[in-house]
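Subject: Spondin-2

B.,
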Amino acid sequence: MENLMLVYWSCKVIWIVLVTILGYGSSLPVGQDALCTAEELAKYRIIFTGKWSQTAFPKQYPLYRPPAQWSSLLGVTHSSDYSMWKKNEYASNGVRDFAEKGEAWALMKEIEEAGEKIQSVHGIFSAPAISSGTGQTSTELEVHPRHPLVSFVVRIVPSPDWFVGIDSLNLCEGDHWMDEVSVDLFPYDAGTDSGFTFSSPNFATIPQDTVTEITCSSPSHPANSFYYPKLKILPPIAQVTMMKLKKSQLGLSAPFINLPAKSNEIIDTVSETPLDCEVSQWSSWGLCRGVCRETGTKIRTRFVLLQPANNGMPCPNLDEETGCEPENCI
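Prediction pasted inline below.
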């Protein structure tokens, strides 16, 4: 009888412990942020640096109407229950509007609704636009142990539906927040417009495609503005740095930054991307010119489609001559 009572009480204790553990676990968000045990809140300064220069990206570089520039930055701090955008998945209507037109209202509404329904959002942050391809903008953001992930988007202007951004970067490492993190950014296609070049007219992708990374060889089409077949990887088109603010810095927020690029900090850190000359196909041969009963000459021509840059392959001869027999001789 004593053995039975001992077994009963042992099982009861184990059951209570299991219920307690499972109950605590069910109150945590599911995903990679579940184990964050850092201090209550942390504030970061986020600095976005545009590196979209004509030196690094010479092909079809937009110089006017409009020139190369960046939209405002729109971001959110959240748990793993929310996703602003994700590679190889379909963009939401809000992300589509932002990537195509720079309109933020639909995306902000999606974020607010996610925060209200599943309490997966801690806060929204934004930073001003940059009026050139190179420059900086910044703002502050706040993360929480239950919402340690950071996501944001910045539209590439002009472009069909191209953007850069971060998807669910975790600033928490176990029991502490990271002091600083920097990430190189590369272009993405939202999958909602089929344009190949920066200035392509609106041409909706039907059916909608998934979000894909744009590389030097994909899309594999010579007309694509990022097509550099001699490169193994594109140079970063932008960079983001997040620095944790110390308690002494809280409440002393610096104003938004919107500075032109400093050559020794931004442009000089990017190697020149060689751009080879591109020419058209040969025209048809022209008329044979010469004296009857003697060998004459005829010419065909081609023209330059794209001028070389940054020590790329120079243009070949644009005309070619060959011998021929004059026609219509009596």
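Confidence is low (pLDDT under 50) at residues 4-9, 11-33, 252-268.

T.
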